[in-house]
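Lecture 7 notes: from sequence to structure.
We start with the chain below.
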Amino acid sequence: MKNSNKGEGEIVMVLIITILAIIIIPLLLAGCPRYNVWREEMSGKAEFARAEQNRLILIETAKANLEAEKLNAQAEIERAKGAAEAIAIENGSITPTYIQYLWVRQQNTSANKIIYIPTEAGLPILEAGKRGTE
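Predicted structure tokens for the same chain:
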């Protein structure tokens, strides 16, 4: 039994010395000039890596925006081609009836739902829809 207690005492002593070393060594290194230089160097490298990553993110975002703009331009070209074909089908002339059709079709997508109807003199009735809203 005495050997068991002696072995346990040595283990406890080694454990205490290890814990003290873990605590004391960093405290001693904090005052060491080389450690301070190394710590600052590592801090600078980390900051540089963050800046490089941010730069790469900005570049990828710009590339994505450029690609989106190219696709939007292609879509606009296709819309223009469609409009040109529609006009060509009508033999290059836009009739008043077709203009009325386009106006009615545009009303379905318009956020403004107030419609002004011209009277006999060609002037719209401006206050007709506002009575119920006040």
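Points to note: The chain has a mean pLDDT of 80. The two ends are 100 Å apart (CA to CA).
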